[in-house]
Amino acid sequence: MRLFLIRHGQTTANVAHELDTALPGAPLTELGREQAANLPIRLGQERFDGVWCSRAQRAQDTAAALAAAQGLVPQVMPGLHEIQAGAWEMSVDRTDWLTYQALLAQWIRGDLQPPVPGGESGADAVARFDTDVAVIEAQAPRQAAIVAHGAMIRLWTATRAVDADPDFVVNHPLKNTGYVVLDGNLADGWSLQEWSAA
């Protein structure tokens, strides 16, 4: 199966540099809505068996445009949400942000056990994402689109793609509506095909 992992459009929290991970989360900005509307154009040559998204409002709104262009209805899944910021939720403190990013980098490089203070571990986050991908695999034999979140996409790709370079993943964040393309399945592993950061 080919899997497109797409980050949501820009939100008001992105603009304010807030660690916004709780549900339902901040709404899309005007630019975020434009980014969502442009997704069907950017991916116009792709045909998807389905479009799935997290419970966050920003992911649902981003997925809606892509799904509608393909005559689909986005399916909301319980485990595709962002890595929870725990004690740092909605913080605008740069130290908290850098600490969150440093922990993400530690997970991406293979140490999944340390948890976010008051939140989940990297292993927890990957496991819940795996659960939803397994459901999607069963429904989308050819090609699927998942609209999710930047940190979660990077962590899952680094953990599950056999050819992903952890240092590359750490140093190449996904911008809003950036995406990653993988081929494979959970049983045999995934291969990274494309990293479209912007």
From TrEMBL:
<dbReference type="GO" id="GO:0005737">
    <property type="term" value="C:cytoplasm"/>
</dbReference>
<protein>
    <submittedName>
        <fullName>Probable phosphoglycerate mutase</fullName>
    </submittedName>
</protein>
<dbReference type="Pfam" id="PF00300">
    <property type="entry name" value="His_Phos_1"/>
</dbReference>
<dbReference type="InterPro" id="IPR050275">
    <property type="entry name" value="PGM_Phosphatase"/>
</dbReference>
<dbReference type="InterPro" id="IPR013078">
    <property type="entry name" value="His_Pase_superF_clade-1"/>
</dbReference>
<dbReference type="InterPro" id="IPR029033">
    <property type="entry name" value="His_PPase_superfam"/>
</dbReference>
<dbReference type="InterPro" id="IPR001345">
    <property type="entry name" value="PG/BPGM_mutase_AS"/>
</dbReference>
<dbReference type="GO" id="GO:0016791">
    <property type="term" value="F:phosphatase activity"/>
</dbReference>
